[in-house]
């Protein structure tokens, strides 16, 4: 899910160019090419990569990695983490492998083309992170890869949560981002699979508007729920200090 295309026209600009038009995005410690992958770098992915709790996570799985952005953000934030990045799209994995190879963390991040529903782990994960497909409209994009990246035809919410539970360690957690209008569906699915809501963060594109996304962290064990809100912009031209603080380690111009 990428706000550069779908999030209330909120588009992050890097190097004076719009995200939707960029093929290479240069962050403070790494760069990513996103020319081949169906879904481009966008605010959703950056938000999730900066927001997810990586503390103590030695084994991490990035589901639907695309160009590898979130996997590389996790690697930057946690020097002890070993990350496996998977995607069903061969073009995405080709691009992710290129970006991983040119990053400072190529020894700790690996990419593999595989369907998450068929994925089996040798060891449980401390953290699973995903920017999953979530559109369910009948109108589909004409490109098959773009359909897979945007629409929940290859990975449903139920599949993401249920299979993640099987792959997580005892105290493992699942972090993902989803449309705010689907909050009730996420809660019901979490209850169905006996997953606790550890963090619930509403994402507001511009101060005073309704939330468009929700950042979720689910846990296998019982936990208290932390409820938060992130406002991206305080006006159409000014980012909030909250968003600047969250992403300052990544954006060149933050």
Protein model, in words:
- With 254 residues, the protein is an alpha/beta fold.
- The chain is 27% helix and 28% strand.
- The chain has helices spanning 3-6, 43-51, 69-77, 90-101, 144-150, 157-167, 183-192, 241-247, and strands at 13-14, 17-18, 24-26, 31-33, 59-63, 82-87, 109-113, 125-130, 168-179, 196-206, 213-219, 226-233.
- The strands form three sheets. An eight-stranded mixed sheet has the order 7-6-5-8-9-11-10-12, with helices on both faces.
- The longest helix has 12 residues, at 90-101.
- 45% of the residues are buried.
What would you say about this model in short?
This protein has 254 residues and is of the alpha/beta class.
Range of strand content: 25-35%
Q: What composes the largest sheet?
A: 8 strands, mixed
Which stretches are poorly predicted, pLDDT < 50 over at least 5 residues? 1-21, 135-142, 144-152
User: What assembly state would you assign to the polypeptide chains in this entry?
Assistant: single chain
Class based on secondary structure composition and strand pairing: alpha/beta
Q: In total, how many beta strands?
A: 12
The outline comes out as: globular
Number of helices: 8
User: What series of H and E elements makes up the topology?
Assistant: HEEEEHEHEHEEHHEHEEEH
> What is the radius of gyration computed over CA atoms, rounded to a whole number of angstroms?
17 Å
Mean pLDDT: 87
Helix content range of the residues, please?
Answer: 25-40%
- In whole angstroms, the N-to-C terminal distance is 22 Å
For the largest sheet, list the strands in their spatial order: 7-6-5-8-9-11-10-12
